[in-house]
Amino acid sequence: xxxxxxxxxxxxxxxxxxxxxxxxxxxxxxxxxxxxxxxxxxxxxxxxxxxxxxxxxxxxxxxxxxxxxxxxxxxxxxx
Length: 79
What we know:
The chain is an all-alpha fold. It contains four helices and no strands. The chain has helices spanning 2-19, 30-41, 54-67, 69-74. The chain is globular and about 30 Å long. It starts with a helix and ends in a 5-residue tail after the last helix.
């Protein structure tokens, strides 16, 4: 799917920003956060849900990192 390809292409940059503490809104975007959630943790949001707030996505990402830090560090894609 086109959306999946977009998430895959964003993942390396998103991971770099996250690991280097970059959390500013205009830098670590909703698309970056979605790529990490989907590809590292297997968490997805409905395709047509473009209105999910960045803060909600970031909170979900922080929750996933706290619960499953090994998934972030492993470098493996979620199945």
